[in-house]
Amino acid sequence: MTGRAVLLSGSLGLGHDMPARSIADLLQRHGWQTRYLNSMSLLGHSYGAAGQRVFGSLIAVPGLYDGLHFAHLRSGSRVANLIDRSSSARVVPALRTELEHAPADLVISVFATGAAAAARLKAEAPTRRTVVLCPDVGAHRLWVTEGTDLFLVTSGAAAASVRRFLPRARIVVIPMPVRAEFYAAPPKQQARAALQVPDGAPCALVIDSGWGFGRVADSVVQLAAAGVHVLAVAGRQQTLERQFRTIARGAHRVHPFGFSDRVPELMAAADVVIALPGASTCAEARVVGRPLVLLDVMPGHGRDNLLHELELGGAGVCGATPAAVTAATLAMLDSAPPPTAPERPATRWEPAFEAACQQIGLDLDLDRHELAEARTP
In this structure, which topology does domain 4-177+349-372 adopt according to CATH? Predict the structure, then answer.
């Protein structure tokens, strides 16, 4: 079966864009037409910009977003319902217009605001499938709305959090969607040669996912001074990219990058990945087979995700100071598994995704031979 799919993401960080891109790539390889819509843009220019500013202000004040998330969004309080109604009042008409202009057979939401709007439009197009992929370990109130055909989650805890609001929801637990490039990442020696990182030297990938938490530039300086080659990825933070490039001019162990499509190669070259506990980055590192040092600075759902990643293993946690990041990274490097250890799991997410879609009448007819050809170390 082929058709037309809309993927609803959101412009807060990169954690929503990456799984949306992974799913879109899969659908396109099997003949689907796909397009993206930004849920924040559907709010309208002024309201979308205001939403970005409010969110930035909330996460900038320690404990403020934690209070909103844990006391209201996760519990489904009156405040959460008010936020839901207020955003849906703008997003639902905008999404309706988009879908009338370019109809879709499938809407997949990886952003809570988009998920709520798509569910509310289900009654107007009963044959259109609505799917929600929640990348976090817990789905808060805005993720869960009557009218969603299928909820895709990545843990049993997330499934239970959906049932808190919709006890009879159709839910399937699948591996986190990760782009095919990560399964085909090159061997470490090959990646290091391309990046001019000496073979055998300690190497860490520091990746900013767009949130701008912590003293990242200072941490890069201290890691390099400790003898670690640092692949420093600034993402969309242009100011941080300029800082990395300035640092690199005086520190040969620092290799600066802005927004890059070379992340699979960078992870393959590294011994350890230093990042926030975002579900996408963590899943990518696990596919490539690299341990994680996670910064405990991401509020709200980030605190839930952090505990989940630690429970999965292959991860450590530290504070955001350069001294804490460096100490945790050096300890992880000292305890890293030998090079002969398996570097990546064999489990792919695509078959589980296909099986889940079949439950709502979508047969993607995946090419098993294509999945089997994924490279191994």
Answer: Rossmann fold (3.40.50)
Range(s) within the chain of domains with CATH label 3.40.50.2000: 4-177+349-372, 180-334
Q: How far apart are CA 81 and CA 290, in angstroms?
A: 40
10 Å Cβ neighbour count for 324? Answer: 17
Instruction: State which H helix or E strand residue 255 sits in.
Output: strand 254-257
Convert the pLDDT of each residue in 161-208 to its tens digit: 999 999 999 999 999 999 999 999 999 999 999 999 999 999 999 997
By the 8 A CB rule, do 278 and 207 touch?
no
The packing angle between helices 216-225 and 322-334, to 10°, is: 50
d(CA 97, CA 221): 49
pLDDT tens track for 227-261: 999 999 988 788 888 999 999 999 999 999 988 88
Write the secondary structure of 280-349 as one string of H (helix), E (strand) and C (coil).
HHHHHHHHHCCCEEEECCCCCHHHHHHHHHHHHCCEEEECCCHHHHHHHHHHHHHCCCCCCCCCCCCCCC
Determine the angle formed by the axes of helices 279-288 and 17-29, rounding to 10 degrees. Answer: 60
Determine the CATH number of domain 180-334: 3.40.50.2000
26 CB-near residues (< 8 Å, 6+ apart): 177, 350, 353, 364, 366
pTM of the model as a whole: 0.90
